[in-house]
Amino acid sequence: MRSDAAENNGIDGSFLQPSDTEVQRWMSCAFNMAKEALESGEVPVGCLLVYNNMVLGKGRNEVNETKNATRHAEMVALDQVLEWCSDRELDPEEVCRRCVLYVTVEPCITCAAALRLMNIPLVVYGCKNERFGGCGSVLDISAADLPHTGTSFTCIPGHRADEAVDMLKTFYKQENPNVLKPKVRKDSLGPAGGSVTTQRESCEKSTSD
Amino acid sequence: MEPETKKRRGMESDPDWWDFLPVLSDEMSDEVPVLDAYAAPITDKRQTSRLVKDLSVVHPLADLQHIKRVRARRDEKEPHALEVLVCLVSDVLTRPQRPTLIDLLSSKDFNVKGLGEPFLVRIPARAPLTRPQFERASRHWPTSFHEDKRVTLGLKGQLFTSGQKAKFQEYMTAAVEAARAGREEGMEAVGAAIIDPKSGQILAVGHDLSRDHPLQHAAMVCIDLVAWGQGGGVYRYEKHPACRYTASDPQLSSGASEEGVQPYICTGYELYITREPCVMCAMALVHSRISRVFYGTSSPDGALGTKYKIHCQKGLNHHFQVYQGVMRQTCEALTRPR
Ligand SMILES: [Zn+2]
Ligand SMILES: [Zn+2]
């Protein structure tokens, strides 16, 4: 098995203490994704899974198109990490143990448990998730004593929390459960598109190796 | 398979043989908490209604509407027939060792005529929610109780008819068979089925796939299979023939409104699963709006009764019913090392 990808990444555990610059950089990518989602009428949550300065997973909520209520941004991103590992015949557990999740909203109870099962050690998030939060808001799954449910993880909450809350508020205000809105395709995105794209380039998923 | 398992299965094939219970919230299953209070004998029965009236002015017990103010004496040898609740211990500012009526009724103009010296009692802090809670709470002090007959029957294992139990058994058998198929593939021996109780249709049957994908627990697989039946879906299951789905018949479907709009994901559906779901799966069922879950056996990190009760978790916007013990022994035998 190849291990070069794992080699220079936080052997000293430094990836567990990302610098302010790192946090700002990755969170701004996550926020751009959330904004993009909001503009296309979807749940404004963005997340990235970062490993060794590479984005292995990028997710947005895909509940509507998959009709699967568990397709939250985090789950989509975790699947991408698994795929990345299987393409390279790397042990997903070893990779995940060195991944950091950056997400605009506190992961829900399902996602928090999934992050444990995948052994993700650190989650940096924006605002609290008052309705479903699994890192303290409704339940604290991240730190709970669940010996058969993966490993507990650390959270760094509150990054640009007000902005994340505002996006959620805007979304829930416009959400009308009785009307099924036609889905706006991402590529037909209007105004903010230009500036978003440039920023987005820098957080593009790592495809090179 | 060892003959012992066969014998057990033989017994469990009679739906009346096995029994299962609802998994109720802590509020419904724990003892009703009690408060310390002072009661006093009514030495002159004719003063009863006046005393109750006057006491309710001095000590109104506003948050204890379920409490009956007067009870029959507990000790047959006592000369008085009735006892009245005076106040909570916490209502009294000074706490002498043996308080007198004067201590409790500081109001100068309270007429203590017909009232004996106070003694300590315990009273239920809130109204009981189930018959067993009511029976135990009443031993302390009489309380009102609004009985939910379905809960009472459920706790006695009498909520469902033999015909219904036979149906549940059919669904759980599908889950058990899936679990065995999964085990043959080297997966955890956990199986599940999602059904539409209106049509009786089995919409999805699946088993654990966590050896290939750490998050593909049996319940997650079934949720995704239902999504496939609704024109969505994420993962592919060709390599796992025991994981299958049927599109729900819109004519018979549960959650469908009059306009024939497809129900939201699992609204109205039921999950049968051999082992208690973990917290990820339990919350996934909340997100999917499942209506009832039946499981066979508990699991150490289980989230529908063991570690959490996600189905009645305060703060969540959707709750569902949970029953455990459906074909328990068959389900337990699945995870036992062979
Ligand atoms: Zn989630
Ligand atoms: Zn699970």
From TrEMBL, chain A:
<dbReference type="InterPro" id="IPR016193">
    <property type="entry name" value="Cytidine_deaminase-like"/>
</dbReference>
<dbReference type="Pfam" id="PF00383">
    <property type="entry name" value="dCMP_cyt_deam_1"/>
</dbReference>
<protein>
    <recommendedName>
        <fullName>tRNA-specific adenosine deaminase 2</fullName>
        <ecNumber>3.5.4.33</ecNumber>
    </recommendedName>
</protein>
<dbReference type="GO" id="GO:0005737">
    <property type="term" value="C:cytoplasm"/>
</dbReference>
<dbReference type="InterPro" id="IPR016192">
    <property type="entry name" value="APOBEC/CMP_deaminase_Zn-bd"/>
</dbReference>
<dbReference type="GO" id="GO:0005634">
    <property type="term" value="C:nucleus"/>
</dbReference>
<keyword id="KW-0378">Hydrolase</keyword>
<feature type="region of interest" description="Disordered">
    <location>
        <begin position="182"/>
        <end position="209"/>
    </location>
</feature>
<dbReference type="GO" id="GO:0008270">
    <property type="term" value="F:zinc ion binding"/>
</dbReference>
<dbReference type="GO" id="GO:0052717">
    <property type="term" value="F:tRNA-specific adenosine-34 deaminase activity"/>
</dbReference>
<comment type="function">
    <text>Probably participates in deamination of adenosine-34 to inosine in many tRNAs.</text>
</comment>
<feature type="domain" description="CMP/dCMP-type deaminase">
    <location>
        <begin position="21"/>
        <end position="146"/>
    </location>
</feature>
<dbReference type="InterPro" id="IPR002125">
    <property type="entry name" value="CMP_dCMP_dom"/>
</dbReference>
<keyword id="KW-0479">Metal-binding</keyword>
<comment type="similarity">
    <text>Belongs to the cytidine and deoxycytidylate deaminase family. ADAT2 subfamily.</text>
</comment>
<dbReference type="GO" id="GO:0002100">
    <property type="term" value="P:tRNA wobble adenosine to inosine editing"/>
</dbReference>
<keyword id="KW-0862">Zinc</keyword>
<keyword id="KW-0819">tRNA processing</keyword>
Automatic annotation (TrEMBL), chain B:
<dbReference type="GO" id="GO:0052717">
    <property type="term" value="F:tRNA-specific adenosine-34 deaminase activity"/>
</dbReference>
<dbReference type="InterPro" id="IPR002125">
    <property type="entry name" value="CMP_dCMP_dom"/>
</dbReference>
<keyword id="KW-0819">tRNA processing</keyword>
<dbReference type="GO" id="GO:0005634">
    <property type="term" value="C:nucleus"/>
</dbReference>
<dbReference type="GO" id="GO:0008033">
    <property type="term" value="P:tRNA processing"/>
</dbReference>
<dbReference type="InterPro" id="IPR016193">
    <property type="entry name" value="Cytidine_deaminase-like"/>
</dbReference>
<dbReference type="GO" id="GO:0005737">
    <property type="term" value="C:cytoplasm"/>
</dbReference>
<dbReference type="Pfam" id="PF00383">
    <property type="entry name" value="dCMP_cyt_deam_1"/>
</dbReference>
<protein>
    <submittedName>
        <fullName>Putative inactive tRNA-specific adenosine deaminase-like protein 3</fullName>
    </submittedName>
</protein>
<comment type="similarity">
    <text>Belongs to the cytidine and deoxycytidylate deaminase family. ADAT3 subfamily.</text>
</comment>
<feature type="domain" description="CMP/dCMP-type deaminase">
    <location>
        <begin position="166"/>
        <end position="323"/>
    </location>
</feature>
